[in-house]
């Protein structure tokens, strides 16, 4: 066999060219930048504004690439207001993950047409969660929205305001704000990299309302001294709701990076699930 190849140098050259092409292709696949396409669903009652939630958008698209698991990915984040959300926006063939945004308006203010559109958005999110494996993350108000979409109860943290309907969040009501210690209740991949903190981590909070009842099929994964449901998730699905703001670093972080900020590490873990799902 060897003698025949040596006698025909053009065949040797062809074989080497094929081998070289395979090596180049494998190197390209291994080193090329991949795209991870996200969708931000804006849950604020005010009119659509693609620039809203600027810090969250910037962190997702520009600041988490330092994490080793995300270095090969280029993040894009499309925007849609909840009043304009459709099934097409949630097509797993077009979007790799969904972020349900924070909001600053009491939920009972979503009435009339806005209330109907909010109910439709809940149904769309519930259907996509139950029907597939699309990674979905609710942040603060988005966490509450996700719980409500499955029949959970949301109301004021302050028992003096439960069942009341002020026009805005009353400043004298009890709330959870600033840097908060959160206790991990169950092991979950969302907490990867926080093992050195044992059973707790720190994150930034800013909310007057909380999830009072965690609905099935969610389970409660973390709590604080003020709010029992700090991080909820569905077993075996990349779907989570976080009462805190993972995009914001606490005052203890010397650098505003994913590697030195508990909240952003958790956010990175979620995006890594989206990367793994894509692969």
Describe what you observe in this structure.
With 279 residues, the chain is α/β, with parallel strands linked by helices. It has 2 domains: 1-32; 35-278, Rossmann fold, CATH 3.40.50.880. Helices cover 30% and strands 23% of the residues. It has 6 helices and 11 strands. The strands form 2 sheets. The protein has a 9-stranded mixed beta sheet. Strands 5-8 form a two-stranded antiparallel sheet. Helix 4 (112-131) crosses helix 5 (141-149). The longest helix is centred in the first third of the chain and has 23 residues, at 9-31. The radius of gyration is 23 Å and the shape is globular. The two termini are 40 Å apart. Residues 1-6 and 253-258 have low confidence and may be disordered.
Put the structure in a nutshell.
By secondary structure, the protein is an alpha/beta fold. It has helices at residues 2-7, 9-31, 54-63, 112-131, 141-149, 262-278; strands spanning 34-42, 73-81, 97-100, 136-139, 153-156, 176-184, 200-207, 209-213, 219-223, 231-233, 239-242. The strands form 2 sheets. It has a 9-stranded mixed beta sheet with strand order 2-1-3-4-11-10-9-6-7. A two-stranded antiparallel ribbon has the order 5-8.
Topology:
Elements (H helix, E strand, L loop, with lengths): L1 H6 L1 H23 L2 E9 L11 H10 L9 E9 L15 E4 L11 H20 L4 E4 L1 H9 L3 E4 L19 E9 L15 E8 L1 E5 L5 E5 L7 E3 L5 E4 L19 H17 L1
Parallel strand pairs: 1-2, 1-3, 3-4, 4-11
Antiparallel strand pairs: 5-8, 6-7, 6-9, 9-10, 10-11
Helix pairs in contact: 4-5
- The helix count comes to 6
What is the C-level CATH assignment of the largest domain?
Answer: Alpha Beta
- The parts where pLDDT drops under 50 for at least 5 residues are 1-6, 253-258
Classify the helix fraction into a percent range: 25-40%
Distance between the termini: 40 Å
Tell me the major beta sheet: 9 strands, mixed
User: What number of structural domains do the residues give?
Assistant: 2
Give the oligomer, counting copies of the same chain as homo and different chains as hetero. Answer: single chain
* Overall radius of gyration: 23 Å
Order of helices and strands: HHEHEEHEHEEEEEEEH
- What is the spatial order of strands in the main beta sheet? 2-1-3-4-11-10-9-6-7
Give the amount of beta strand, in percent.
15-25%
Shape: globular
Provide the CATH topology of the largest domain: Rossmann fold
SSE class: alpha/beta
How many beta-strand runs? Answer: 11
How confident is the prediction overall: mean pLDDT?
87
| CATH architecture level-2 label of the largest domain | 3-Layer(aba) Sandwich
What is the CATH homology-level superfamily of the largest domain?
Class I glutamine amidotransferase (GATase) domain
């Amino acid at each position: 066999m060897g003698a025949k190849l040596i006698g025909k140098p053009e065949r040797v050259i062809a074989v080497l060219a094929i081998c070289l092409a395979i090596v180049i292709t494998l190197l390209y696949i291994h080193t090329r930048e991949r795209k991870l396409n996200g969708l931000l669903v804006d849950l604020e009652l005010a009119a659509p504004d693609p620039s809203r939630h600027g810090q969250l958008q910037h962190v997702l698209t520009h600041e988490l690439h330092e994490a080793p698991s995300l270095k090969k990915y280029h993040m894009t984040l499309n925007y849609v207001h909840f009043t304009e959300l459709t099934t097409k926006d949630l097509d797993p063939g077009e979007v790799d993950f969904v972020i349900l945004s924070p909001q600053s308006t009491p939920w009972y203010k979503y009435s009339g047409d806005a209330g109907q559109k909010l109910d439709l958005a809940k149904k769309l999110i519930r259907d996509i969660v139950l029907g597939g494996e699309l990674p979905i993350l609710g942040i603060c108000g988005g966490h509450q929205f996700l719980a409500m979409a499955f029949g959970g109860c949301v109301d004021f943290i302050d028992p003096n305001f439960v069942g009341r309907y002020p026009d805005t969040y009353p400043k004298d009501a009890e709330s959870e704000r600033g840097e908060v210690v959160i206790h991990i209740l169950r092991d979950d991949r969302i907490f990867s990299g926080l093992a050195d903190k044992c059973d707790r981590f720190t994150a930034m909070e800013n909310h007057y309302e909380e999830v009072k009842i965690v609905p099935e099929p969610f389970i409660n994964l973390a709590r604080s001294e003020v709010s029992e449901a700090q991080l909820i998730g569905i077993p075996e699905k990349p779907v989570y709701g976080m009462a805190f703001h993972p995009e914001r670093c606490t005052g203890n972080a010397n650098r505003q990076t994913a590697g030195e900020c508990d909240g952003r590490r958790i956010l990175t873990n979620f995006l890594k699930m989206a990367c793994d799902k894509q692969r």
